[in-house]
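Structure in, sequence out. Go:
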């Protein structure tokens, strides 16, 4: 796996990230989703992407559960916020 420094930070992230948009917290059975996370770590992926609206919050909840017990310094978890109900 190749890694890049994230901006001016000390973070080194994998060039390939693991996304959770249509998968975790609803689209994929939990056992398969957990296996996917474990395989990503096994091949060196340390950058995980999610957002508050993926599976109506289910992706973030799933990742919180499956990452328990994983050394926090071993991965970068990037999340985004969507305000889809904001009035203009």
């Amino acid at each position: 796996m190749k890694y890049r420094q994230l901006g001016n930070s000390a973070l080194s992230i994998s060039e390939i990230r693991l996304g959770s948009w249509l998968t975790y917290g609803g689209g994929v059975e939990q056992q398969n989703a957990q296996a996917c996370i474990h395989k990503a770590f096994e091949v060196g992926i340390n950058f995980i992407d999610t957002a508050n609206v993926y599976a109506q919050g289910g992706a973030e909840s799933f990742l919180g559960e499956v990452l328990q017990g994983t050394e926090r310094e071993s991965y970068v978890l990037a999340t985004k916020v969507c305000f889809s109900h904001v009035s203009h």
